[in-house]
Amino acid sequence: FLQLDKNNYKVDYLFTHTGGSKVTQTFGFKPTESDIKLDKIIQSGYKIFNNNYKHYCGHYHEDYIVDERTRIVYKDIIEIY
Q: 56 pLDDT exceeds 80?
């Protein structure tokens, strides 16, 4: 929590396994309970994210850009700084 405190509890990156309902539906799947829980966590914690935070997930074993904020990472190497 020390780093969060230093940055006024603002987060630039979110790393998850699943991607949430939007990602699941992008691939034509029905959202699972885990996807729905992730949606709720993101919504409830939305105030901690910076306006341009990035969300990375890897469950789908594919490299795919969902939108300007969300990206599925499998083999791609992404520089984060």
A: yes
pTM: 0.84
Ramachandran quadrant class, 73 (left: phi over 0; alpha: psi -120 to 50; beta: rest): beta
